[in-house]
Amino acid sequence: MSAESSDISKEDKLKERTSLLMRLYWQDEIFKIGRERGLTYFEQIHDFWEINLYQGALEIARNIDDNVLLAILSSHPKPYGISLGGFQGKYYSLDENGQLSFKNSQDNVRKNVRTALKKWGERGYGILQALINKNGRTTYFELIDEIERVLGYEFAPSYILPRLAPLKLVFKTGSNKYPEWTMPSEITTVVQEEIRSFKRPLQPPRIKPTISEGLLKQMRERDTLANEIIEARRNIDIVFKTRFKTAFFRQNEIAINDLRKSCSDEAEFNNRILSLALLIDGIEIASVSKLIKSKGKPGSINLLETFLDEQIIDYDKTIIRNLRMIVTLRSKKYPVHRDDPMYLNALSYFGFTEMPPDWQNLWETILFRYLESLRGLLSILLQIQ
Questions:
Q1: Is the CATH code 3.40.190.10 the one for domain 106-196?
Q2: DSSP for 249-289?
Q3: Predicted TM-score of the model (pTM)
Q4: How far is CA 324 from the centre of its chain?
Q5: Which of 148, 216, 340, 345 could bond 332 through an S-S bridge, CB–CB 3.0 to 4.6 Å?
Q6: What is the pLDDT of residues 299-323, one digit of tens each?
Q7: Phi and psi for 313 in degrees, rounded to 5?
């Protein structure tokens, strides 16, 4: 091996060791390891959140050898397993339990890519190439858009995506709030090399759509709406913490995730409205109560109304009215309570007079009204000095 080739190999191994450390540890643990090693970069920093994760991992990687790496893994075990199915590198391989071996996993990656292409052909190719084009990580609907750019036609990859995880090619990541699909960074080059030889058919195949265009459009719109609600709640918390040194909302990722789901019948509507009501009721009551002078009626909406009445002389009462009517749809109907005429009044408030209503349209209308209240609340908070 020439000196130049040797230098390239050393650089490649350093990059891979850095990626491995980033797969294993978050900033707090990287900071701790760097301090234990007495590295200058970490000695100049006071708290772990001040470090750049990549830079911190790189500093450790360039100052250790493989024996020290083994010692680090032994003294800093990962308690909950390794994300993205472990690590499949050229120089390092790691299973989900954190067992490290110094072997090349690339042949296995190539084998799994070929399996995916054999099973799903052009669709598998489209997913893998689209993910690589998005730097290995993207949301579901962004992935659909990129697949269309790759293949020249659109299809929903919901059937194939979870089946790529056992092949260790693609994993669902992120949170219930912000779900994404991710290809492990150490395999992207190998995957690209392998799919580059895939020969697409001269004529695009006639693929029976797994999801109709109308339903796919509906899913996109609901996903966008859920993201806007999440962003509005996040911004309210940021402003509230800045103004009052406390969060406004309690986090509930399971309820947030339900906002993205379909609502095709009454049973699904009952589940969805319960989740939304949990989000409305999910205020940091103990902290917010300390910010008001008068003792109002119990309940999160009453607490919010009292807070706004004391903070702002005049504001749009639609903010509160929307929330009350949403909770009425939850509370004045079976299975939470016995059916009540107030339920019909709440339906009429949202523009629905027929029974049964179009459950999907009702659900989307309610989500829009909830978002309207969140945006109104945010606008008020920004006015408070």
A1: no
A2: BPP-HHHHHHTTS---SHHHHHHHHHHHHHHHH-B-HHHHH
A3: 0.59
A4: 29
A5: 340
A6: 899 989 988 888 887 888 889 999 9
A7: -65, -45
